[in-house]
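user: can you give me the structure for this one chain? tokens are fine.
assistant: on it. calling the predictor now.
[tool input]
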Amino acid sequence: MNVVDALVAHHNTLRQLYQQSEADPEVFEEFVRHLVVHHTMEEKYFYDLLEGFDQGRHDALEAVNEHHIIELIVKDAEGFPRDHGHFPIKIEGLGEYTSHHLDEEEADIFPLALELFDEKDLNTLGKLFEEAKAIMLGAIPPELPASLSAMVPKKAGIKNAPNGNAATGAPGTAAGLGIGSLKK
């Protein structure tokens, strides 16, 4: 599978997880986990290389900047109490911005990449993206010992979730390892 096909397939997963998280906020963590992995691997196996083409540089930089904006929206949502009546609006905002970003990639950036990269490179990058995604989605960082996790400052208004991060209250969020959850 070439990298464009792999990215589009994962875009479909992201859209599905967004729709599910709107109906069931418990799915939000899985949506965020997939976003983190997707953006990290997309930048490594696609945008870093696309930036090397004069015709692709601007689009690559714009897309990576949009990833950063999505990260900011995620950080805001992660720190928001899950039981608050406005939390579904946080999910909606993240999903809408993400959907816009995915649509733009598919309409403008991916067709350009198919013109710029040769077929062999597209296939190699697709294989690397799929392998890395599988590893990253399966990654479970070790938990802090209780004596150390007790040292993590709790933030006001955020409940500590089981197996979660005391600082954010988000289940499985690994402080310092990106923008979202790395745990199922």
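assistant: here you go. The radius of gyration is 17 Å. The chain has one domain: 3-140.
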